[in-house]
Amino acid sequence: MSKPLEAMKVTDKVYWVGAIDWAIREFHGYATQRGTTYNAFLVMADKVTLVDTVKAPFRREMMSRIASVVDPKKIEILISNHSEMDHSGSLPETIREVEPEKVYASAKGAETLDAHFGLGGRVEAGKDGQTLNLGNMNVTFLETKMLHWPDSMVSYVAEEQVLFSQDAFGQHLATCEMWADTVARDVLLYEAAKYYANIILPFSPMVSKTVAKLRGLNLPLKVIAPDHGPLYRKDLGWIVDLYAEWAAQKPTAKAIVVYDTMWQSDAVMAKAAAEGLAEGGAQPVKVFPMGSAHRSDVATEILDAGAILLGSPTINQQMFPTMADVLCYLEGLKRKNLVGAAFGSYGWSGGAVKRLTDALERMGVQIVADPVSVNYVPTDEALQECRALGRKVAQANLARLGE
Ligand code: FEO
């Protein structure tokens, strides 16, 4: 008989009892090429406590891991740090099965969980800074509103020096490795950046405040345990420092070109513009043809960029639909402090370049060069204009960086 899925030990009294989703490739618009985990944690205090649950289809996996440590019926306290359904989807069924004495969330969390599942007031509202006694241990709730939902909070168990940080500091990375320091650093950094760019970026002002709040509390910490991906146990400061850096949204010399093409005119214009960016000093330059690139990979690269060029053919007076998709997504992510410009081709009516320019304005990008617009197919002269456009944008970016 095979062994059931088991818990993994985080500290003496804390266990990982989550689920690994090796299959997921799409997470509300975000391409999760490396899958993800839904982390839940069992605190073996006098009052056995479960922190967060998992996405609904993974509940049996979580229960199996819990049962490898303790009879699930012995769970007395259930804490929901975040109401989004990848963490709360199995909450109602878990409450029914476990019958905990108390279920806690933030005040907004209690409201949101009720709105999702109609729990009829079963969830109690914890207060920011409230410490709950678990017998031989204590758990403190710290609200992190809008990081990344209004209900978001983190929980800290002082005796084990563990911070359960919900989505903050997470990555969509399916792995059997529980610790971040055993995962290849380049993979970890990329996935942490991708997670920040696609989930956390619009809430950067709150990240700055939360990082300052956490640093001010100076909590003794052995482990930061997010709700996705591996946990941090060594050099805990580096991921917090990275969050502070990403939240500042400082521009760099990096430039990206985002385009699509109908009959290759915009593809050659994009190449010329990219070469112009490099000539102008942009470093690195990354090019995203939206016929094959994914919006969430563009978002990842924009996180530490300084300049953006957009290109599109005109179709029925509009920009190409793939460009509308990525720009709708980027506009929502609200990356600040970019400079940029637009280019495009048209047959008779035109329209794409104007719409790209409008999109840049809505995104708050400082437009530093007039657009290049080409009728049907670019001539050699038009390609020189695209090159010059790239140079001008790169130079404008470097000038404000003082380089
Ligand atoms: Fe992992 Fe906001 O849910």
What does this structure look like?
This protein has 403 residues and is an alpha/beta fold. It folds into two domains: 8-247, Metallo-beta-lactamase, Chain A (4-Layer Sandwich), CATH 3.60.15.10; 255-397, 3-Layer(aba) Sandwich (Rossmann fold), CATH 3.40.50.360. The chain has twelve helices and 22 strands. Strands 1-2-7-8-9-10-11 form a seven-stranded mixed sheet, with helices on one face. Strands 17, 18, 19, 20, 21 and 22 form a six-stranded parallel sheet that branches. β19 (307-313), α10 and β20 form a beta-alpha-beta unit. α6 (204-217) runs antiparallel to α7. The longest helix has 22 residues, at 380-401. Bound molecules: MU-OXO-diiron (FEO). MU-OXO-diiron is lined by residues 82, 84, 86-87, 148, 167, 227-228.
